[in-house]
Every structure is written in structure tokens, then in C-alpha cells.
Amino acid sequence: PQPRYLDQWRHDLAWLADQCVDGNVIMAGDFNATLDHMARLGQGDADMGYCYDAASRTGNGAAGTWPTSVPELLGAPIDHVMATSNWSISGSAVVGNADGSDHRPLVVQLDPALALASERATKRRSVNVDVVVHHRRTGRTTNQRTTAAARPQAT
Q1: Could you give the CA distance from residue 41 to residue 123 in angstroms, rounded to a whole number?
Q2: CB under 8 Å to 130, separation ≥6 — which residues?
Q3: Which H or E run includes 30?
Q4: What CA–CA distance (Å, rounded) separates 149 from 138?
Q5: Phi, psi at residue 118, to the nearest 5°?
């Protein structure tokens, strides 16, 4: 960020970390920050708040998502999908360029992490997910709750 925006940028990163509480949270988007910028924002071994970065946890954390005008190896990994330990991160990939964007898409596979053996034996269960979107330019935050069918983990 430009020097005159550094305080706001730091505030925005701290706000994101505060949203990633211990519970059922997934955050995704252009954070305009690499994991190095978030180094002091994680709780315990988490990357930001209580969330884990999906790309770094699957070996793709150094893949540059921005800008598309340079090779992926030279880009900055500033787009993230973060999830709490309620989610099992099973894969991620930075894929080719998206038409009309200067960011490369980040595709992540998350599965609900089922802690109890009885839940693992269940064929299907639903999971409530709260989606929080913060619009930096307008300062607006929107919340939405959705329900997703979950596949049980293999025992």
C-alpha cells in the first residue's frame, strides 16, 4: 500500500483477524497482504486470528495471485482463503488468468472437519456457514448465513 494508506491497511488486516474467531469461519478474498504481513495476527499456530491459510497449508502459499502481468513465480500471493479448524483443507491451486482481472483465481477444497466418531458415521449432515463480506471502498459489511450439505470424513 501507499504510505498514506498504511494505517488504514493495518487496521483492515486487524479487523479481518478479529472476524476469524474460533468457530465455524471461512474468509476469502483479496487481502492485499501476504502471510508475512499477517505474521503477528494469528492465534497459536493459525495464520490470521484462528484461521489457517488454505494455500500455505497445502503447499501453494508462494504461488503469486497478483498481478497477472508477471509470471506466477514473481507475483505476490495476496488472495487468500482462510478457514478455522472446523474445516479440513484438502487442496488448493492457483489457476490460469481470469478474463478481465489482474488477479489469478485461487481454487480451494474445504470439507467440514467432523470431530466426533458418531458424526463421522452419519451419511450426510448440514453445516451452517456465516459469510461476512467487508467492502473496503464503501466501508460496508454484509452478513449472510447459508446451509451446506457436508460429506463425512472417512474413518
Answers
A1: 37
A2: 24, 25, 143, 144, 145
A3: strand 26-30
A4: 33
A5: -65, -35
Residue 73 grid coordinates: 513465480
**74: CB partners within 8 A, 6+ apart:** 64
Q: CA 124 → CA 23, 41, 119, 150, 151, distances in Å?
A: 20, 35, 9, 6, 6
pLDDT reported for residue 147: 54
pLDDT in tens, 65-87: 999 999 999 999 999 999 999 99
**What global pTM score does this model have?**
0.76
Side chain identity at 14, as an amino acid letter?
A
85 CB-near residues (< 8 Å, 6+ apart)? 22, 50, 52, 113
Instruction: Assess contact for 52 and 21: CB atoms under 8 A.
Output: no
